[in-house]
Amino acid sequence: MTHATEPDLGPLTWVKGEIDAALGRAREILERGCAGSEAAGLQFAQSHLHQVRGALDIVGLDGLTLFTDTLEQLLGAMARGEVPADAARHALALRALAMVGNYLEELADGAPDQPLRLAPRYLELAAARGQRDASAADLFH
């Protein structure tokens, strides 16, 4: 008999408030649209997301960490002008931010860590930054 190992979510409860606050700040920046200083706003949002990514890495949520890292990379590529910072990418970034928050909320409420649920949006994020070799399997490594 095999048993799936679930991460110890005790550390998540310690940092969840900070993660939620950083996600909220990134969302606010993206919702404002960063008029006149698009690159600077995207960099601030990316910085807040980097904090989230670091906390998730420490907690051991590898799939969600990769998902968040991919979103962070998209924001960076948009800020540097490597990909257009268009309305579609902004909307995708906002949906992905919401997904991170919702996923964490579900984990805190006792749902199992199932990174495959992140796969469709993960593939969208990767494609939006021009990464064509992304796979749902990435979320498990």
Mind telling me the CATH superfamily name? Answer: HPT domain
Give the terminus-to-terminus CA distance.
23 Å
- Rg from Cα: 15 Å
- Strand coverage percent: under 5%
CATH class: Mainly Alpha
CATH topology: Four Helix Bundle (Hemerythrin (Met), subunit A)
The number of domains? 1
The helix/strand order is HHHHH
Main sheet: strands, sense, barrel:
none
Structural class given helices, strands, pairing?
A: mainly alpha
The global form is globular
What is the tally of beta strands? 0
CATH architecture: Up-down Bundle
Query: How many helical elements?
Result: 5
GO molecular function: kinase activity
Keywords: Kinase, Transferase
InterPro entries: HPT_dom_sf
Protein name: CheA signal transduction histidine kinase
Core attributes:
globular; 141 residues; 5 helices; mainly alpha
Summarize the structure.
With 141 residues, this protein is mostly helical. It has five helices and no strands.
Question: What can you see in these coordinates?
Answer:
The chain contains five helices and no strands. With 141 residues, it is an all-alpha fold. It has one domain (11-140): HPT domain (Four Helix Bundle (Hemerythrin (Met), subunit A), Up-down Bundle). Helix 2 (38-59) packs antiparallel against helix 3. It is globular. It starts with 9 loop residues before the first helix and ends in a 13-residue tail after the last helix.
